[in-house]
Design a protein that fits this description.
The chain is of the alpha+beta class. It folds into 2 domains: 34 residues, no CATH class; 123 residues, Roll (2,3-Dihydroxybiphenyl 1,2-Dioxygenase, domain 1). It contains 5 helices and 9 strands; from the N terminus they run ααβαββββαβαβββ. Helix 1 runs antiparallel to helix 2.
């Protein structure tokens, strides 16, 4: 929602419930920051091969919360998707045709050769979403505290995904002196 629309909504809600304004401040500030700050795309984009890209895109959205960038889709005249890019937070992953650049999915190769770590705000909620969507859970959520939890899941073609609490992935600022 655009900041101006969010501000109108908050004004209407605050007329009936003053506490709504306090609750909405954080959301409004996040919307303003997103609109004002330039969006930087990553310079390294992992690519994952899939036999069925359409099914992969549907699963990744439903189970893990990824969103396809519609303008990235490369579709053949026959309706077959050859490549797409999905985003999660400020990161992107390419989803490509099996065999492209010599890469094959774990389903075809019979072996997992890598895993991807994805930082999420709420590991437990994300785990429940993945479970409800039919993800194969490779490792149940574990960790000492809520801020150090992680779980692992496999998508239908066998790619391993590790979902960690976003605080585990915070990188300290680089000192370039």
């Amino acid at each position: 929602m655009k900041p101006v629309d969010l501000a109108r909504k908050l004004r209407r809600e605050a007329a009936f419930e003053p506490a709504a304004l306090d609750r909405g401040k954080e959301e409004l500030m996040a919307a303003i920051r997103q609109e004002v700050e330039p969006r930087h795309r990553p310079t390294i984009i992992p690519q994952l091969p899939y036999q069925d890209i359409r099914a992969a895109l549907s699963f990744l959205e439903r189970a893990f919360g990824f969103h396809e960038i519609p303008t990235s889709r490369m579709e053949g005249a026959d309706g077959v998707i050859h490549h797409a890019i999905v985003e999660f937070g400020d990161s992107v992953i390419g989803i490509g045709t099996q065999g492209a650049h010599g890469a094959i999915s774990p389903k075809s190769g019979g072996i997992e050769s890598q895993y991807l770590s994805v930082a999420v705000a709420d590991v437990e909620a994300h785990y429940q979403r993945a479970l409800a969507a039919g993800a194969r859970i490779a490792r149940e959520p574990r960790g000492q505290s809520a801020s150090a939890r992680a779980y692992e899941a496999l998508d239908p073609e066998g790619h391993r995904w590790r979902f960690v609490d976003q605080r585990l992935r915070e990188v300290p600022p680089l000192n370039r002196s």
